[in-house]
Specification:
The chain has 659 residues and is α+β, with helices and mostly antiparallel strands. Helix content is 21%, strand content 25%. A hairpin with a 3-residue loop joins strand 14 and strand 15.
């Protein structure tokens, strides 16, 4: 039986009356658990539990599944065991084990452990089931993103754990919402300023190498990354303390990917086998509930041999795993997770195209025209682009409108919103919705146009954002909140149907969270700007009285004209007169210099969000590093005839520039 089930998820039913009757075989091998334990996707009556077991160091790996005994208890001493079952760790899943435990009591804290031969035991895990769907209970969660192993240490996890231990029971974190970039598939030899990384991923088993970085190319490589990241004691402790609810972004496969295509070079490259391998590794190491419950479209990893035809190989790789899903947490919260990578369109504008028509950046109009394609201007797109001499053909004239979600997922997402009876509909959204545009048109005596900073997130899919926001309005959906990641930035904004229509009614609010450890956005923009013109660099950084300040925050919040004037005069008060950045309506806060995490508390009619910015995380530490500042926001639940009104930020600690 163990051999037959070794490559799949184990199903465990809570039967307390029989839970104490199982023991390990006498000749069970001694093992250890180098990546700890984890739990995920809590539901009112079930949870997914996870571990990885290996033969003890010095013992040869075995091709035979190794028996383990899972125990689930209502108390830390394991005196009240409610579920117990024999499992097996086998080499075909890299010795990872997934155990779906159902029949549990709702809204309850449980403890679990895995036992191996000769007294071996995993660390003790702590988890909890969701409250019943009719339970009127507040929800406390942490939301996180972007945890490069190399660019920083996991002081954010250490701080979160230390503070949660000191928090009153009913305000402790219920679960972690992980918004992607759990691993980074690329390993850079040094930072952008030429200095060494904080630490390094060991050599890949296979891997591709060049002068500036290395990257994963095989199943062994992706497994290697998860095992390396999970060797960190603070990440292990977080996974043992709280259940995680996870989606992915790009780095779980390939930076800025779409479908099975990588985009490292000037032209996208189909890498279907690599996508298949990354899907398998994610499934093996992330304790997500996918096809263990009835009436779900999601499914666990399905191994396949890819066909030689590119289109078929792409679709088969994508179809090997489906992770967009919905969870409930009592009366107050429905959590709707999307996959923003697997079904998206190719980028609407090719790399470097703007420079070919003498534009410094992709303009808002160019992005909207290219993304909407044949639907632009009510189905009448121009034949030529309105730039340069006006003779450049509109390459997107016959293009189907772009999509980040894909039609099937978009329809599912809107149906999930429409059918939700919860007060709050939380969108677990790996990419920021909030506008981050550069108001180049504010520069006097110039013909510059407002430009889009980055078309990889939702800013590159304005047509679908309009479609979604219009549907939310037409269906009178209220309480929709997006928690997002990816941009290594703390931010908060109300979101209109389009940033190009600032007078339209906001339909949702987006809180985007900075990276747990990845280099902040400001750091990356700063080093790119140093290679650029002096004029652009002044929009990114400036020196005041010997102190370097992040003008990029001011440029996004208060605009190009404000940043330019403050840089030239040194008078920071000018920003209040010349701002805000009208290309970014609704943007209440942005700090591109931050690392950290977010906390959210949902009550029946109020959402409180705190964005925590940590002190320097590039150095090792012995005690949890301190918090630099916390930005607080409040959002009241609005009615169908109203709109979201975001209050904040207010700060504990020193507010970041320019606030």
């Amino acid at each position: 039986l163990l051999i037959a089930l070794s490559a799949s998820t184990f199903m465990v039913h809570a039967l307390p009356a029989r839970a104490a009757n199982l023991t390990l075989p006498e000749k069970a091998l001694p093992v250890h658990f180098p990546q700890g334990v984890a739990s995920g996707d809590p539901r009112p009556d079930s949870i997914m539990l996870w571990t990885r077991a290996e033969p003890l160091p010095g013992t040869a790996m075995t091709d035979t599944p190794m028996p383990l005994l899972l125990q689930v208890s209502e108390d830390e001493s394991f005196a009240r065991i409610v579920a117990q079952q024999l499992l097996a760790a086998a080499p075909d899943t890299d010795y990872t084990v997934r155990a779906f435990v159902d029949g549990l009591r709702s809204g309850t804290t449980f403890y679990y452990r895995f036992l191996g031969g000769q007294g071996a035991a995993s660390r003790k895990g702590r988890t909890q089931t969701a409250p019943a769907q009719d339970a009127a209970e507040d929800v406390n969660l942490a939301f996180v993103s972007c945890q490069s192993f190399e660019q920083g240490y996991y002081g954010s996890w250490a701080r979160m754990i230390a503070d949660d231990i000191e928090t009153e029971g009913d305000k402790q974190i219920d679960f972690i919402l992980q918004l992607g970039d759990f691993i980074y598939e690329r390993s850079w030899h040094k930072r952008q300023d030429g200095t060494p990384q904080s630490r390094y991923v060991p050599d890949f088993p296979d891997g591709a190498h060049n002068e500036i970085n290395r990257h994963a190319v095989s199943l062994a490589d992706y497994r290697h990354l998860y095992k390396t990241y999970l060797s960190d004691p603070h990440l292990q402790a977080a996974r043992a303390r709280w259940p995680f609810v996870c989606t992915w972004d790009d780095h779980e496969f390939s930076d800025d990917n779409f479908q099975s295509y990588s985009t490292y070079g000037d032209e996208p490259q189909l890498e279907a086998q690599r996508k298949l391998d990354s899907n398998q590794a994610w499934f093996e190491f992330m304790p997500a509930v996918l096809d263990e419950t009835a009436d779900t479209h999601t499914h666990g990893f399905e191994a396949t041999t890819l066909p030689p035809e590119d289109a078929a190989a792409n679709q088969q790789a994508l179809g090997s795993l489906s992770i967009y899903r919905r969870l409930h947490w009592g009366q107050y919260l429905d959590l709707i997770l999307t996959d923003n990578r697997s079904y998206r369109s190719a980028p609407c504008i090719p790399k470097h195209f703007a420079q070919t028509i003498d534009l410094p950046m992709n303009t808002v109009t160019l992005v909207e025209m290219a993304d909407a394609g044949r639907a632009f201007n009510d189905g009448n797109p121009p034949e030529f682009l309105p730039y340069g001499d006006g003779a450049t053909p509109n390459f997107a004239r016959e293009r189907e409108p772009g999509s980040c979600l894909g039609k099937a997922q978009r329809d599912w997402f809107l149906q999930a919103l429409d059918s939700s009876q919860a007060n709050w509909k939380l969108w677990g959204n790996s990419l920021p919705l909030l506008p981050l545009r550069i108001d180049m048109s504010s520069i006097p005596f110039s013909d510059y146009q407002d430009s889009v900073f980055n078309i990889d997130p939702w800013a590159g899919f304005p047509h679908e954002v309009r479609t979604l926001m219009d549907a939310v309005g037409d269906r009178n959906i209220t309480g929709l909140v997006s928690l997002s990641g990816d941009h290594h930035t703390h931010g908060a904004a109300t979101v209109n149907r389009s940033a190009s229509e600032p007078d339209s009614i906001p339909r949702t609010v987006d809180f985007t969270v900075a990276g747990i450890s990845s280099s902040p956005l400001f750091t990356n923009v700063y080093h790119q700007a140093k290679k650029s013109s002096t004029e652009f660099f002044s929009l990114v950084s400036a020196d005041f009285e010997g102190e370097s300040v992040p003008m990029w925050n001011m440029t996004l919040q208060q605009g190009v004209l404000a940043s330019t004037a403050v840089d030239r005069t040194g008078m920071k008060t000018l920003a209040d007169w010349l701002g805000p950045n009208r290309a970014n309506p609704g943007l209440a806060f942005v700090d591109t210099t931050a690392n950290g995490y977010g906390l959210a508390r949902f009550t029946d009619n109020t959402l409180e969000v705190s964005l925590i910015a940590m002190s320097d995380l590039t150095k090792p530490f012995t005690t949890a590093p301190p918090i630099n500042y916390t930005a607080h926001f409040t959002l009241a639940l609005w009615q169908a005839d109203g709109q979201p009104v975001l209050e904040g930020p207010t700060f504990d600690g020193p507010a970041p520039f320019p606030y």
